[in-house]
Structure formats: C-alpha cells, structure tokens
Amino acid sequence: MRPDWRTALDERVTRTIDPGDAERTVVVAAHPDDETLAAAGYLRAAAHAAGVRVEIVVATDGEAALPEHDDLDRAALGRRRRTELHSALDRLGLGDTPVHWLGLPDSALDADVLAPLLAPLLADADTCLAPWALDPHPDHAAAGRATSVAAPVSAHRWQYPVWMWTGRSPDDPDLPWSRAHRHDLGDEDRAAKARAIEAFSSQTAPLVAGGRAVLPPDVLAHFGTGRELFFRDPAGGSAPASRFAGLYRDGNDPWDVRDSWYEQRKRDVVLACLPQRHYRHAAEPGCGLGELTRELAARCDRVSASDYTDDAVRATASLAGGLPGVEVDVAALPGPTALPDGIDLAVLSEVVYYLGEDDVGATVDRLAATLVVGGDLVLAHWRGWPVEAPADAATVHARFTDDPRFDVLVELVDEEFLMHVLRRR
C-alpha cells in the first residue's frame, strides 16, 4: 500500500464496523472479485456471526476486462469469472453463500437500469454493501448509486472503494473521511482473503502472452493490509415519517424510552444542565412518547411538544397532555408549529440527526429567529449512527455550535450520548 494511504488509514479512520450487527447482509458488486478484494474479511466475519445471512449480488460478469484485446472470447471470460468467484467463496469458507447474477453488460453499467433490479433483492436486508459511488471506475460508481436508491430506509448502507487506492489521493476533498469505518482482519481471515484473491487468475495474471494483468502486484498490495475500508452511505434527505409511524404503531416503544437506563440517565442529565431554574415557554420537537415532556412541564410555564408521528403524539398527549401548560401537536422540524415564535427554551433530543442537510440548516435558522435573546437550546443525541439518520450526532451538533448566533454554555461528551447547551446571543 502506498505510504500516504497507510498514514491516512492510521490517522483518519478510528471507527470500526461490526459485521455481526445484522440479520441479512447483502453485498453488491459491479464485477466478480470486487466483493473479495474490498470486503472478503467483512464477508467472512459476517457469515460466521450468529444469525447473519449473507448474500452477494453481482451486476456484470466482468467480460469486458482488458478492452485493448479485441480477440478475447468475452462470453468465455464471463463464465470463467463466475467460476472464479465461486472458487474464491469456497476458499473463504463461504461456498454456500447465495450469489445473484444479473448479467448486465460490463463497462456499460447503468444505475437507472440496475436500481430496480436490486430493489427486490435488497428489500428485507438490514445491511447493504456496495462499491463507493465516487470510485474512479464508472461501473463501480453506477453500482454505488443504484444501491443507494434501491436499499430500504431501514438498512445500514456502506460503500467500499476498489480503484480509489490507485486513482485518487487521500487529500482529495471529496473523500468522506468523517464517514469512514474500518474492519480489521485477524491472521486467519487475512490468509483466507489472500487465497480467495488468488482464485481470480483471470485478473491477477495476464490473459494473453505479453499482456498486462488487470490486478498487478502494486494494486493487489492495497487489499492485503489486513484492514478493509467502508464509507457510511447515509440517506440524502430527512428520514420519512412513514418509517417512524411503523416503529410507533400499536403503542410500541421502539427505543425503550420508558424503561432503559440510557434514556432515564440522559433525561436526568438534560434536566440537570438546564441553566435556568424555570422557563416561560419551551418547545420540544420530536417528543416521542412524552417522558421528557412530563419532566419539562415542571420547569416551564408552557411546553409546546410535537412529533410528526401520530402515534407518538397520542402517547405524549396521554402521558403529559393533561399537565398545566402542555400542548401536544403533530408537527415536523423546521416548521413554526414545532418551533413557535418567542420561546426561551428548545430541547431537541434524538431528533436532529434524522433531518437532511437542508432541513438541519433551516432548523438552525428557525431557532435563531424564534429563540429570544438569552434563550437556551439543548441538543442531546446518541453517539452512534441510527440507521435512518443522514448524519451522526457530532456532525449535526457542529452545525449549531459553529453558528455565531449561539454561544456554547455546556458540552458533554458521554460514553453514549453527546449534549450541548447553547444560548441565543
């Protein structure tokens, strides 16, 4: 591996990916071998984790490799590459892994054609891996874009680079290092991956006398480091209300907010960090089941609680709607019903990271407009990355803490959650 890439991985990628945190994992590849080069260790770990079902979808047969040789039997090369993939899976100990062959044309992959073919194959997956949508190879880029469109909102989505290592620099401004995670391979997995890569002899050795290999040693070196790189592929817009409606349906408590120690402790910390003993008018968008609403009512003359899920609103109204000054309504950020004019406190807990970038920006602006001077804003979010969320807690909090219209009063980096208390200037 080039020294600059090795340094970048050492210094910029601190978070790890958990291959066992799924029930059904689907790996999309543009060509046979993409999945092995970039994710064989992940595949092996996922397949060996209890309860995880692994499947592979291969968009093309890779028959257009080495286009400069117009005398190659392309159909035969495609068949050979299919055989090589199955051999590689055998060497990984994954010979029974289902492989879905789509047979689309190599080097002409169209994301608009691929996406509807992927949709039924990804429908109930809770983890999807695909090539990085900015990888220098156009087929990889198309496969990444198509998977982003086809994957369900309930699935964790990851993208893996293949030709990035040789076609880009670690300092390229569009590399999403803030979303980078790694998977570290043990000695056994690393050796199995090396054997699996050797199965792709059509790629690692010249196909014709005097010709070149698609994957020469300097390229293969990037895939033998014992570390695999994945970029989180978040949804582009705000999480849909339908997703939360399904989670809350029939009185469900999807995040165990009533009983979990995480939720109880976080509520206690939020209340303890409120700078004022009492507030005139608080807004609590994303009120969920109303547990925090009930506590805020004791510290405020008036609380405007809201959620954009009907079942959550009904639950909050049942729990806290009868308390003096509590109003509960259906509303979504950044709307004026969620953040009424003239509030002196806003509490946004486990809600902002579900907003798309534009809605986060509009929420910052709305709060700057509606909070009275000297009013307080509380942000509290889990430090993980919810599956439906376009960004993590650190990213969305920075949009507020970096805004010159707010002063930071409290910053708390807990093991499990991130909290900021800001004051409107």
TrEMBL record:
Record key words, sorted: Zinc
Domain of life: Bacteria
Pfam family, one: PIG-L
Gene Ontology BP, a term: oligosaccharide biosynthetic process
Single Gene Ontology MF annotation: S-adenosylmethionine-dependent methyltransferase activity
CDD domains from the UniProt entry: AdoMet_MTases
PANTHER family: BLR3841 PROTEIN, N-ACETYLGLUCOSAMINYL-PHOSPHATIDYLINOSITOL DE-N-ACETYLASE-RELATED
Protein's name in the database: LmbE family N-acetylglucosaminyl deacetylase
